[in-house]
Amino acid sequence: MAPYASDDSTRAGETDDDPRVGRRKAVRYVVPVTVAGVAAATIGLVPALADSGDPDLPKISAQQLIEKIAASDVQQLSGTVKISTDLGLPDLGGLETGLLSGATGESGGSSADPSAKLTELASGTHTLRVAADGPDRQKLSLLENAAEYSVIHNGTDVWAYDSASDEVYHSTVEKNAKDDGTPVPATPGELTEEALKAVDDTTSVTVDGTVQVAGRDAYKLVVKPKQSGSTVGAISVAVDAETGLPLKFTLTPSGGGAAVVDAGFTQVSFARPAASTFEFTPPEGAKVTEGEAADPAEAPEDSGVPSEEELGEDLAGLDVLGDGWTSVATFDTGGTGAASAGDLPDAGALSGFLGSFGDKVTGKFGSGTVFSTRLINALVTDDGEVYVGAVTKDALVKAADSAR
């Protein structure tokens, strides 16, 4: 499959002072770090690739394909999704899920709480059923062994039901709320939109031929870093030729091997789902937990979770070393060594436990430990400085040295 076009990679009219630039920087290195589990749930609505031939489609440039994605307005769909996630995390016997849910401030409470339950998508292979009918009705069901977990958004109500524990979680949102305020994303294109925010002049964007996904003809958009030192090899998105809806999202690491994330539809329909799809009544005898009303613009003040606006401002304000895909975020924890995790529960024990998975490194900066996944590396120095990014271990050490 020969590429149709190349190097349509930048957005016109943006400068370094443009707030969108800061947000793209934040997205690039923080999304995989802080929302690995929750992002995986979002990725779950961006279907995986099922190759079945290369359809003959009119040629299109990368810029035209990006514009086609932006113009996509699919309101109704249903289908089956398969998602595989391999971050290269050590097997912690389920502890990693607890750490992710704890990081979102949602430890404890109902086992049906989506903010905790959907972190299971951060590892392994899962099958989901999805359905959407406009911005006010969506449903996602995670199919498990002899059990099912579902999240249903219908109007102002959000219901989640875990059949394994027979628990129900209920909260409310504003009608016509933006998708980022609901636990179930309304459009699978949102993840692709976030990925495209990282596009700048350090990025190559091409159209690499055509594919078929779940019987649909699609173009394949490929986003690659131009710089060496990034752990991101490529992001590949299959885009429906008719509707412009992203039908595949695959992120492969520069180190080779299986994809870090490979998620997508094995079956999809754009017919309007039946209204009964989004109806839910708690089963008799089920334990029902009422959550606080959700404001799409901001989290409750006492939740410990920042709003999207606050998060964007905080991330854009981080010190950043370098640029593009090899940029490294750095901050001072205010502690040293094992105490650098001091704000976490049981910090000393947790830091010592995680330290057994790290690699000791030294440089002009002094000494520290690098914690690695297949996508994100983080260097924690013995004097409490943290350097993190989608870059190699050597690039982290180099960044730390340059800061001294």
Descriptive report:
With 404 residues, the protein is an alpha+beta fold. It folds into two domains: 19-298, outer membrane lipoprotein receptor (LolB), chain A (Clam); 327-402, no CATH class. It has helices at 19-34, 36-43, 62-71, 95-103, 114-117, 189-196, 308-316, 347-355, 393-402, and strands at 76-85, 124-133, 137-144, 147-154, 157-162, 167-172, 203-213, 216-225, 232-240, 246-253, 261-269, 287-290, 319-321, 328-332, 359-363, 366-372, 377-381, 385-389. The strands form two sheets. Strands 7-8-9-10-11-1-2-3-4-5-6-12 form a twelve-stranded mixed sheet, with helices on one face. A hairpin with a 4-residue loop joins strand 5 (157-162) and strand 6 (167-172). Helix 1 packs across helix 7. The longest helix is centred in the N-terminal third of the chain and has 16 residues, at 19-34. The protein is globular, with a radius of gyration of 21 Å. Mean pLDDT is 74; it is low at 1-52, 92-107, 178-187, 294-308 and 337-351.
